[in-house]
Amino acid sequence: MFVRNAWYVAATQNEIAGKMLARTILNEPVVLFKNGDGEICALEDRCCHRGAPLSLGDITACGVRCGYHGMMFDRSGKCVDIPGQTAIPARAKVKSYPVVAKGDYLWIWMGDAAKADPADVLDYPPDDQENWPRSNDVLHLKASYVMVLENLMDLSHLSYLHRTSIGSSETDSANATMDVKRTPRGMKFLRVMRNADAPQNWLKRYPTGKKVDRWSDFEYVAPNSIMQFSGGVNAGDYDAGVRSGSHLGRTLHTVTPETEKSCFYFFNKADGYTKFEDPGRERTWKPLTEVFKEDAHMLEQQQLRLDNFDPKNLMDINTDVARVQMIRVLNEQIRQEQEEMQQAQERKQPSMQAG
Amino acid sequence: MFVRNAWYVAATQNEIAGKMLARTILNEPVVLFKNGDGEICALEDRCCHRGAPLSLGDITACGVRCGYHGMMFDRSGKCVDIPGQTAIPARAKVKSYPVVAKGDYLWIWMGDAAKADPADVLDYPPDDQENWPRSNDVLHLKASYVMVLENLMDLSHLSYLHRTSIGSSETDSANATMDVKRTPRGMKFLRVMRNADAPQNWLKRYPTGKKVDRWSDFEYVAPNSIMQFSGGVNAGDYDAGVRSGSHLGRTLHTVTPETEKSCFYFFNKADGYTKFEDPGRERTWKPLTEVFKEDAHMLEQQQLRLDNFDPKNLMDINTDVARVQMIRVLNEQIRQEQEEMQQAQERKQPSMQAG
Amino acid sequence: MFVRNAWYVAATQNEIAGKMLARTILNEPVVLFKNGDGEICALEDRCCHRGAPLSLGDITACGVRCGYHGMMFDRSGKCVDIPGQTAIPARAKVKSYPVVAKGDYLWIWMGDAAKADPADVLDYPPDDQENWPRSNDVLHLKASYVMVLENLMDLSHLSYLHRTSIGSSETDSANATMDVKRTPRGMKFLRVMRNADAPQNWLKRYPTGKKVDRWSDFEYVAPNSIMQFSGGVNAGDYDAGVRSGSHLGRTLHTVTPETEKSCFYFFNKADGYTKFEDPGRERTWKPLTEVFKEDAHMLEQQQLRLDNFDPKNLMDINTDVARVQMIRVLNEQIRQEQEEMQQAQERKQPSMQAG
Ligand code: FES
Ligand code: FES
Ligand code: FES
Fold first, then answer.
1. What is the mean pLDDT of chain B?
2. Does A71 sit in the ligand 1 pocket, CB within 6 Å?
3. What does the alpha-carbon distance between residue A217 and residue A193 come to, in Å, rounded to a whole number?
């Protein structure tokens, strides 16, 4: 089940540079591109004539011309040319999706277009390449988007799955404080490890000492995004309100379902410490993709194990507090949207009993 | 749905040169080969003993010996030897299919053998290698055979899908006249582009001028074949009855369903101008396979887009006139055959009500 | 359908040397390994927390630590550590399977653990590396385990499928005597070819003459194993009770279902003639894997032909006598176990009518 009335990342802006991108989103075939006039288009990737993918056609000034028999569609999905005939029937159209370019991404609305408000598109991480240089990547996973979100809302996995990469020690992990609370758009947690060992690569890179306070502030914006603010300061400084001096990052994690069992995981990190660094040092971005591939492998295998398994046989543990809260928020949003769609349906087709 | 009572191309003659060919046709596993006596055999590719593919066995004088436990079958499918026993029960047999070698092909009958008349096998293109040298090829497509037929019955796609290969200009295309009519075995269309631009490669190859009349005469023989006669003459000559002098070809397109969503597309072109050509010139055949690969890619992607999509949401346009007529003929033939099978079934098992 | 209350080979001992092995057995994901204390563990390969495969975790002294969030399980499947909490609920556990190391194998019990008796594990072939040096291999087949057993119980296929490798001549095959009888644990057959041609490689390897008596004594131990004793002696010697002097082997064939349509075929041959051989000669083991690959290819193709085919359309022949008997024994064992499970179920939940 998906929430349809929400902005999902359809692609990075780079992915449509000079070409059309065909991608299945929430089970629907979508083609994304910039038309000749430079406007971003997101259309159903299935011509209304014989079903050919529009992504195999050609970009025109106003939209796209189907590569099979040449029907042309503008960015609203309306057919504006049918070779061999002058009259264009009203039903000659394909679905078009609201789309917004913001930050490094194209955001798409798969639900009721009347409800799509560009103001709701996330404004994160900071669009400030000088002070917060960003980098991003995307992984295609054969796993439910829900599993990716759950993975992020339960940082206890860092000490195990990422032990050899970004993980903290089990002891520091066990001593972490954890605050979870609802927010208007979802929920959030704040996890702080005080007086913890600084990771080896922090010692090389940052001026902070061997003992640090580390925080992870994760806000889940339902149904699909997590805004992460995390960093480190010298031990003792966190409670004094210091929020910079060592590792410092704002990361947007956002997951777009392809199907029920596959998704695109987009991550985008703004590094707040970079400009203080020795410019000779290597960027640490590449390893982050490597780290997330550790997750990807685990999640795909997890998906296989759960394919024919009743989740009621699974159990929650203490460290699941944020994850469980997140699932509750997501399920509530799905339930609510289903209910609204049901009601809208009934308003259109009053039931027999109403007569 | 398939029409069963019809001749389908099972393979080219070349495909069984010195070997057995295993191929699924209309969802049934078939093995094709020449027995030791030189007779063509088309048998169920599943031994009646334990189901082994006979195509893994050995050719014998009368037929094939199963490679698993050695049962031997003649070309009628009757078992003629069971190792270790002398009595051969009547039910020791596999299905055999009527098969006819004609032209470059082996034609198979997948329906009621009593209805198979070799005289119905198409006699096209002309079997005259000197004046009409033929060449043929086959493509395996992950798309319904119906889509391949539809593709051929709607030449408006030439200006788009084949724009860079065999396509005519959009203007010439738009000015084409189109006559569609029913025929005893199906339907046909005649499409003529008068005073059109001669394609670049025609200018190099033929003595005709820059302006030509081009015709395409396509006869659909239900359920699976299309006989194409097309060519060009100097502009103005077509209506004067001239039918040669430039590009001239007779092509048989015939499609054999493998499953509901995959097929074998056989095409066979006889070139009527070849003998007038400068022998030093390169044959133009190879490009034709390349052209049809453009169709193949489109059709396979189209199939994917329609897999979970209600075709009622698609729409016809003016250029579909021949395609729509063709589909009507095909569906009518399917409906009629289903009805006959139903009735035959009822004659065998009279219904309760009849009592 | 599978018999669950039986010992199946889960793996060779080698397959868990210093690592965890993940394998699906009877449709269940299993992880096999030796814990730090050297005990063999066979656990459900799906953590009870979020379903991660335990095979992606780390081996500990008592068992395994999940690689996702660190829960630790001992070899009984009981959770003994949950990071971040002290209380361990009773339901924190994964399924564990009885497992026995014997000979070259790890044997697993997929059914009711209360019925698992290690004494029932086969004691075959002889555990005597000096006089009966063993070698073994395993093939993964995309075919039902039943087909593998059937293949072994019908040696008539040797003259056809293995004609160019280990097959005997068709005449010798046809003259073979065949005795089939029930046994307490299944059934067995004895097949003797008297005064048969010695295979070429026997002539090179053994001191026997050109004419030999060959015997194959196959005992099927339901549901999954076949103990083979076969060899050759000089023609005439077999009926005089001689049982060695030429080719001599004891082979265990045992098949473990992965799913309904795939399995692991383990074979293990003890060679009783080896010690009399010229040590300079090449071992003949490798060819045996090659021979069984001939079976594997045939069985996988057979499986495909039977996937959508009613087996009632197949027929038995005379040489099927042992195979048919074997199937009867297997089906009876399946039926009986299903019945017992049904009754046990009813004892737990007395039917409404009983009230
Ligand atoms: S399928 Fe697009 S124009 Fe025909
Ligand atoms: S399967 Fe063909 S003879 Fe046995
Ligand atoms: S999935 Fe194993 S500890 Fe979480």
1. 92
2. yes
3. 12
Q: Which of A157, A305, A311 sits opposite C69 (nearest CB)?
A: A157
How many C-beta atoms surround the C-beta of residue C219 within 10 A?
A: 17
Q: What are the structure tokens assigned to B152, written together?
A: 């051929």
The answer, yes or no, to whether any atom of ligand 2 lies below 6 A from the CB of B70, is yes
- Predicted local confidence at residue C351, as pLDDT: 59
Q: Domain map of chain A by residue range?
A: 7-118, 124-335
- Structure tokens given for A294: 């550790």
Phi and psi, residue C347, nearest 5°: -60, -35
Q: Do B302 and B146 touch, CB atoms closer than 8 A?
A: no
Q: What fold is seen in the domain B7-118?
A: Rieske Iron-sulfur Protein (2.102.10)
- Contact criterion met (CB < 8 Å) for B301 and A56: yes
Helices (H), chain A: 145-152, 170-174, 200-205, 285-306, 321-348
Q: In chain C, which residues have pLDDT < 70?
A: 275-287, 350-355
Mean pLDDT of B176-193: 96
B68, A56, B328: which is closest to C159 by C-alpha?
B68
CATH architecture for segment(s) A124-335:
Alpha-Beta Complex (3.90)
User: pLDDT digit string (tens) for C67-109?
Assistant: 999 999 999 999 999 998 999 999 999 999 999 999 999 999 9
| Interface contact flag, C318 B45, Cβ < 8 Å | no
Query: What integer pLDDT is reported at residue C280 of this predicted model?
Result: 56
Q: Which chains border B (3 or more CB–CB pairs < 8 Å)?
A: A, C
Both tokens assigned to A88: 């264009």
* d(C-alpha A139, C-alpha B46), whole Å: 45
ipTM score here? Answer: 0.91
Q: How far apart are CA C97 and CA B207, in angstroms?
A: 83
Q: What's the CA gap between B171 and B173, in Å, rounded?
A: 5
For residue B341, name the pLDDT band (cuts at 50, 70, 90): very high
Average pLDDT rounded to a whole number, residues B218-240: 97
Count of other CB atoms within 10 angstroms of residue A245: 17
Residue B84, classed as helix, strand or coil, is coil
Whether B52 and chain C come into contact, CB under 8 Å, resolves to: yes
Decide: C74 and C80 in contact? Cβ < 8 Å. Answer: yes
Using one digit for the tens of pLDDT, what is the confidence trace for B81-90? Answer: 999 899 999 9
The pLDDT of A88-92, averaged and rounded, is 97
Q: Residue with structure tokens 């009613």?
A: C310
Length of chain B: 355
**Residue A160 CA, closest ligand 3 atom number:** 3
Q: Which ligand sits closest to the CA of C73?
A: 3
CA distance B226 to B265: 11
Kindly report whether the peptide bond that precedes residue C98 is cis, defined as omega within 30 degrees of 0.
no
**Which ligand gives the minimal distance to the CA of B299?**
1
